[in-house]
């Protein structure tokens, strides 16, 4: 079954039609809404989400269309000739070869000309540097050497400085990822009350629509939600 069949749309469907089909199916098979088998609803929702993720992106949709309907490869059927002489006179292969040979010769000449031009420019540049160095005095050569050495030293120091910053940032990340770093809450647990953030009606509705009702009582559900909210918003 293709992704188009999963969403119930045609292969030529627009992005708006794909989006509408996805919304309708999710309203029907969402695990929190579906009244039948929950495992079936979860599996169905996964298939619908996967199909929508691929078809909603134009680039991935094009790749998927090529995958399910690959273009047929061209198969060459050789022509029939009565004799070898007829083949060499009428075959287009000879013409193709001659055209290729002429094109390659012209391209090769152009490439050689470009290469020779770059080579000549490089040689002229190198010769000018050598001439200028030969004209320099010994003290000037020493100063130039020291200047180049200074540039290398500065470059190495900057690299080491950046390496130290990266190392320190990694150590900071490791510190903040330690669970003990979050042990001290910024908001006292005893002062937190879930009813300050959610009303009784909202909690009742949330409990009714969730799967917690199959495993916990309403009071146990309130404790779970309260702990979840506290840890999510007040432990830094």
What's the N-to-C terminus distance? 47 Å
What is the CATH-assigned architecture of the largest domain?
Orthogonal Bundle
CATH fold type of the largest domain = Helix Hairpins
CATH homologous superfamily grouping of the largest domain: DnaJ domain
Number of strands: 0
Q: What is the chain-wise order of helices and strands? A: HHHHHHHHH
Protein structure class:
mainly alpha
Largest sheet, strands/sense/barrel: none
- The count of helical stretches stands at 9
Low-confidence stretches: 179-185
The number of domains: 4
Q: Any idea what the radius of gyration is?
A: 37 Å
Q: What share of the residues does DSSP label as strand, in percent?
A: under 5%
Please give the share of residues in helix.
Answer: over 70%
- The CATH class of the largest domain turns out to be Mainly Alpha
Characterize the structure shown.
By secondary structure, the protein is an all-alpha fold. The protein folds into four domains: 3-68, Orthogonal Bundle (Helix Hairpins); 84-134; 136-183; 194-233, no CATH class. The chain is built from nine helices and no strands. The protein has helices at 3-7, 15-29, 38-56, 58-68, 84-90, 92-135, 138-176, 200-209, 218-233. Helix 2 runs antiparallel to helix 3. The longest helix is centred in the middle third of the chain and has 44 residues, at 92-135. The relative contact order is 0.05. The model is unreliable at 179-185 (pLDDT under 50).
């Amino acid at each position: 079954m293709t992704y188009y069949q999963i969403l119930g749309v045609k292969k030529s469907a627009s992005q708006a039609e794909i989006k509408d089909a996805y919304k309708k199916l999710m309203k029907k098979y969402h695990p929190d809404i579906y009244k039948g088998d929950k495992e079936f609803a979860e599996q169905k929702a996964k298939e619908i989400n996967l199909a929508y993720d691929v078809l909603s992106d134009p680039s991935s949709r094009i790749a998927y269309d090529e995958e399910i309907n690959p273009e047929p490869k061209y198969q060459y059927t050789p022509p029939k000739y009565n004799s070898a002489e007829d083949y060499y006179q009428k075959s287009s292969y000879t013409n193709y070869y001659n055209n290729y040979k002429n094109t390659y010769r012209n391209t090769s000449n152009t490439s050689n000309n470009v290469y020779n031009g770059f080579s000549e420019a490089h040689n002229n540049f190198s010769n000018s540097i050598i001439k200028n160095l030969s004209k320099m005095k010994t003290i000037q050569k020493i100063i130039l050497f020291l200047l180049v050495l200074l540039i290398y030293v500065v470059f190495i120091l900057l690299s080491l400085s950046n390496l130290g910053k990266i190392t320190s940032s990694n150590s900071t990340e490791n510190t903040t990822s330690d669970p003990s770093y979050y042990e001290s809450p910024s908001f006292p647990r005893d002062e937190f009350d879930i009813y300050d953030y959610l009303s009784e009606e909202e909690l009742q509705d949330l409990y009714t629509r969730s799967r917690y009702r199959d495993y916990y009582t309403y009071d146990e559900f309130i404790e779970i939600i309260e702990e979840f909210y506290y840890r999510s918003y007040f432990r830094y």
